[in-house]
Amino acid sequence: EDLPADWAERVRALAEQRDAVILAHNYQVGAIQDIAHHVGDSLALSRIAATAPQQTIVFCGVHFMAETAKILSPDKTVLIPDADAGCSLADSITADQLREWKAANPGAVVVSYVNTTAEVKAETDICCTSSNAVEVVRSIPADTPVLFGPDQFLGAHVRRILGRDNIQVWGGECHVHAGINGGQLTAQATAHPDADLYIHPECGCATSALYLATAGAVPAERVKILSTGEMVDAAKVGRTKQVLVATEIGMIHQLRRAAPGVEFLAVNDRASCKYMKMITPAKLLRSLEQMRDEVVVDPDIAARARGAVERMIGIGM
Ligand code: 13P
Ligand code: SF4
């Protein structure tokens, strides 16, 4: 890919000309995180997208995130530097599958992770992200059955915290987080006995982390199940010199910026999301030059999905 030496200046100048705000998820490559106006987790970025004064949003993340921004701001132009940046978790449930699941469980409230297509959101009562999933489900009366999808590990985390047995969980997973397993976590925790453990709830190893704490192998207060945004907050107030991080490796860049004196080590340093990494500086520049790829959501689907996303954003404000 051709990348002019002055790409960063050109991106900033074009963003100004186009009245565009650049948002980047914590899993983006370092250069994209550094040029963005805002970096954050999916909930924080949704909130910024909903209130940003700019007419154009350039979403450096994956497609469902840009779609969520478009659902919240239908009158704005939403661009993603590469429309093929998908998500294996969002692909793990279709709107038809969700309709069948609902038909088999009348009366249940549907909670969907934001990592879903607009069509799935349109069939959803309330969305959640990893930072508010517990609060969102807690907002539903305890005697009302819940269908939670598509991530099985996040669903198991919500069930564990709330101790509710009327939450049915879909069997989907993110291939990157599912690949961070208990064996790797145990080996790293043993090799670094003084480190804190930051574990994303989508990880296959989240249960192993709690098991390590219960077994006394790691002090319970060192095991933290956190969304990517919560990891940055924890890093700012943390006291340990070393932290083991179980999530997509792009996260380490933002953590080092937040706490330069701390050593952050990936539990699995091959846990890279190929979709997040499809967004490059060259494609960001092209996106602003050519105003592409524009994200389009069918207006009827967007209208039905909006309620579920807005209910989520309203919780915990
Ligand atoms: P959060 O930023 O909400 O923690 O999401 C993680 C993720 O996998 C997004 O793709
Ligand atoms: Fe989807 Fe997983 Fe990539 Fe996040 S890390 S965008 S959940 S495939």
From TrEMBL:
Pfam families in alphabetical order: NadA
One Gene Ontology term of the molecular function aspect: quinolinate synthetase A activity
Matches recorded under Gene3D superfamilies: NadA-like (3.40.50.10800)
Cofactor(s) for this UniProt protein: [4Fe-4S] cluster
GO biological process: one example: 'de novo' NAD+ biosynthetic process from L-aspartate
Keywords, alphabetical: 4Fe-4S, Cytoplasm, Iron, Iron-sulfur, Metal-binding, Pyridine nucleotide biosynthesis, Transferase
EC number: 2.5.1.72
Top-rank lineage group of the source organism: Bacteria
GO CC annotation: cytosol
Keyword Signal among UniProt keywords: no
Annotated metabolic or biological route of this protein: Cofactor biosynthesis; NAD(+) biosynthesis; quinolinate from iminoaspartate: step 1/1
Keyword match Transferase: yes
Protein name: Quinolinate synthase
Species this chain originates from: Nakamurella multipartita (strain ATCC 700099 / DSM 44233 / CIP 104796 / JCM 9543 / NBRC 105858 / Y-104)
Lineage, uppermost ranks: Bacteria, Bacillati, Actinomycetota, Actinomycetes, Nakamurellales
